[in-house]
């Protein structure tokens, strides 16, 4: 069992229990918040209504008519599909890190099912004609799954991307061998003959000494460093298209530990959906590159990460969750406008 995932799971359960004590499910649903409790948020807009989806029991949903006040709508998945338990036997109902996109007049939602301390995971798919039809999400089965004894990647944290040829892709991944990209077909499942490949890692794939802060002393080599998932602290990819580039945002370091969290977001970019994704120093993200975007300011948020980014009404919007210091490290929504510097790198306002 990987130590990091054990600690992450324990802290996430603690955070969930603390939240539940203050806002149990029955009381929370239907209430409105300006700073909603969310973890791993994504956003969609339909008919002037903003929807937020996030990690939670059956996927948490919030809605807002003004983009300021968010109403808790309850859970998307009233009944967890049976196949998820077959694919990930230890998975229950705490669904991680959804993503949502409109493609060919239909909404699609991907979501993560994972098992305690392992990369035995699966990314599921739902579809709906309208986000307003809250009880009409249709199960579309599994997009992709990982197995601990088979794969050196983890099928969680999905993000849909549509390229310039109207071809859908899925970028995903957490720890192990980093961020993965795979081509999808028009049904939003993995295209025939396609396999995921790594497009970003936290560390370069070479021999290096491991400092004590990372579990050393020992040497990591191309043959063994990914086997300890905790050494490759990268996850939660999200790709935004802007001015001819694909921008790959990823989270570094550790989530889910309240005020002990160290999450931060970095970015690289490419003219091609398949990469390479290069940072402002010219370093490929597959070799550990990343241009800083956001981290904890140590005043309001101890750490911030698991982001999403969109162009909506001619504005570029960035959202993520931050571990709020005033709320003892509870995860709350951060929403900022993206501006661009003279070299087309993002700056949050």
Can you characterise this structure?
The chain is mainly beta. 9% of the residues lie in helices and 43% in strands. The protein has helices at residues 3-22, 25-28, 82-87, and strands spanning 32-33, 42-46, 49-54, 56-57, 60-64, 70-75, 94-103, 106-114, 121-128, 138-146, 159-162, 168-172, 179-183, 197-200, 208-210, 218-220, 234-242, 245-252, 264-270, 291-295, 301-312, 315-324, 330-340, 346-348. The longest helix is centred in the first third of the chain and has 20 residues, at 3-22. The protein starts with a helix and ends with a strand.
Low-pLDDT sequence parts: 1-26, 220-228
Number of helices: 3
Total count of strands: 24
- What can be said about the biggest beta sheet? 5 strands, antiparallel
Shape: globular
Spell the H/E element sequence. Answer: HHEEEEEEHEEEEEEEEEEEEEEEEEE
Structural class: mainly beta
Instruction: Please state the average pLDDT score.
Output: 88
Q: Classify the beta-strand content into a percent band.
A: 35-45%
Distance between the termini: 40 Å
The helix fraction, in percent, is: under 10%
- Determine Rg (CA atoms, Å): 19 Å
Widest beta sheet: strand line-up: 1-6-5-3-2
């Amino acid at each position: 069992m990987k130590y990091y995932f054990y600690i992450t799971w324990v802290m996430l359960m603690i955070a969930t229990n603390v939240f539940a004590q203050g806002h149990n499910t029955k009381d929370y649903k239907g209430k409105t918040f300006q700073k909603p409790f969310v973890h791993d948020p994504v956003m969609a807009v339909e008919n002037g209504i903003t929807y937020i989806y996030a990690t939670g029991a059956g996927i948490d949903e919030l809605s807002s008519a003004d983009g300021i006040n968010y109403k808790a709508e309850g859970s998307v998945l009233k009944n967890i599909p049976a196949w998820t338990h077959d694919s990930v036997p230890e998975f229950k109902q705490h669904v991680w890190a959804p993503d949502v996109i409109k493609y060919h007049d239909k909404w699609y939602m991907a979501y993560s099912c994972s098992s305690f301390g392992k990369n035995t995971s699966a990314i599921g798919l739902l579809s709906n004609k309208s986000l307003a039809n809250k009880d009409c999400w249709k199960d579309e089965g599994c997009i992709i799954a990982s197995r601990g004894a088979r794969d050196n990647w983890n099928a969680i944290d999905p993000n849909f991307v549509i390229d310039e040829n109207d071809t859908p892709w899925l970028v995903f991944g957490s720890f192990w061998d980093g961020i993965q990209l795979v081509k999808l077909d028009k049904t939003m499942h993995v295209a025939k003959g396609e396999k995921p490949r790594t497009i970003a890692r936290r560390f370069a794939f070479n021999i290096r000494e491991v400092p004590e802060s990372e579990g050393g002393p020992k040497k990591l080599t191309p043959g063994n460093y990914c086997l300890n998932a905790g050494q490759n602290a990268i996850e939660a990819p999200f790709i935004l298209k802007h001015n001819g580039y694909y921008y790959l945002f990823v989270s570094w370091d550790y989530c889910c530990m309240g005020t002990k969290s160290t999450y931060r977001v970095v970015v690289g970019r490419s003219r091609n959906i398949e990469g390479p994704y290069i940072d402002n120093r010219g370093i490929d993200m597959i070799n550990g590159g990343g241009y800083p975007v956001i981290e904890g300011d140590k005043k309001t948020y101890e750490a911030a990460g698991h982001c999403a980014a969109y162009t909506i009404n001619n504005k570029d919007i960035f959202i993520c969750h931050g571990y709020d210091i005033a709320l003892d490290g509870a995860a709350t929504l951060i929403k900022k406008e993206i501006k661009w510097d003279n070299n087309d790198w993002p700056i949050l306002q």
